[in-house]
Amino acid sequence: MIKRIIEPSELSKFKTIVESVSRIVVTCHKKADGDAIGSSLALCLILRKLGKNATVIIPDQLPDSLCFVAKGIDYVTFNRSEVMAGNIIRNTQLIISLDYNSFGRVDRMKPCLEESTVPKVLIDHHLNPDKVFDVVISHPEISSTSELVYRLADEAGWLHCIDKQVASCIFVGIMTDTGNLAFSSSYPEVYHVMSKLMEYGIDKPYLYKMAMDTVPLNSLLLQSYALLNKMTVIDDKYALIILDRSDLEKYGYKTGDTERLVNRPLSVKDVFWSTFMREDPDCIKVSMRSEGSLAVDELCTRYFNGGGHKHAAAGEFYGTMQDAVELYYKIVEQVKNEEHNKNEN
Ligand code: 5GP
Ligand code: MN
């Protein structure tokens, strides 16, 4: 049996609310990744098996690369069907927030969620959730929100609601958030969960190929170009990749095309901090990855209106790319000083 981790009071509050309502909205963060969409669809399907009228509403369009997860499952995209999605949220009896810890992460859906007076449940693995939720199932020590959904189903007595489709969604979420069990997964139980999921007859080679090893040609070319021409490595330790509007246009950039690019410099020996800046239409998107003691979520929170996890975080910069880069070099000086002080002690 997998060890119970969910606070009994939160679990029982959650079960009581679910039992007392029929209409439920399940939401995830904007620019959904495999964990956000995998956990949301999985929980929605479980709730439907429990007889609930559950709807997944994602803030913005799912990248093409993740459409395979949602194949045959209906969901609503808020910024494409704002009126309908707004009505569903106004009429729902329960809102569940998956894989994000603040309404600042749901784009234009934010006011609808904030205005709603129905109970709000958080199921997430990011640090420091906002204090707006009535039930908080927050576990930063767990690999992914998808793993949490499996554990929740287990602890709530809903395992009978898991089938091959649900197991596949959860599997993809765990696989993508851990880089195929490379990080955030150094504890035995995540493997117990994976092994349980295999029992549902999921097609692991297909899910791996689709989730981890399939990109459009333009994405492969854009990422190759970025590494070859747009990467700077400072002192052999810190890597910065910058893609501006013209780079993105040259390669026909679409959401998802730079997925995992920021991880690549970490495969160079001695590089332990990687930063990627992308000029989006509304801001400079900043993604960071690190190894060892450097906590990039702190840097992203402090300097880039963002957050995330110790070794994988992101945020947004409102200003020019030049200003963003200048700020980056100030942070480099700070990181260097901290490293220096650490080595002195
Ligand atoms: P990525 O670099 O893959 O976009 O994001 C890395 C991590 O940072 C993910 O855990 C994601 O949830 C979190 N993250 C991404 N963008 C933002 C953001 O704008 N704000 C906050 N708080 N977290 C973010
Ligand atoms: Mn996640």
Overview of this structure, please?
- This protein is of the alpha/beta class.
- It has two domains: 8-212, inorganic pyrophosphatase (n-terminal core) (Alpha-Beta Complex), CATH 3.90.1640.10; 217-344, Diaminopimelate Epimerase, Chain A, domain 1 (Roll).
- The protein is built from twelve helices and twelve strands.
- The strands form two sheets. It has a six-stranded parallel beta sheet with strand order 3-2-1-4-5-6, with helices on both faces. A six-stranded mixed beta sheet has the order 7-8-9-10-12-11.
- Helix 2 (34-49) links the parallel strand 1 (23-28) and strand 2.
- Helix 2 runs parallel beside helix 5 (145-156).
- The longest helix has 24 residues, at 321-344.
- The chain is globular, with a radius of gyration of 20 Å.
- The chain starts with 7 loop residues before the first helix and ends with a helix.
- The mean pLDDT is 97.
- Bound molecules: guanosine-5'-monophosphate and manganese (II) ion.
- Manganese (II) ion binds at residues 35, 99, 125, 144-145, 177.
- Guanosine-5'-monophosphate binds next to strand 11 and strand 12.
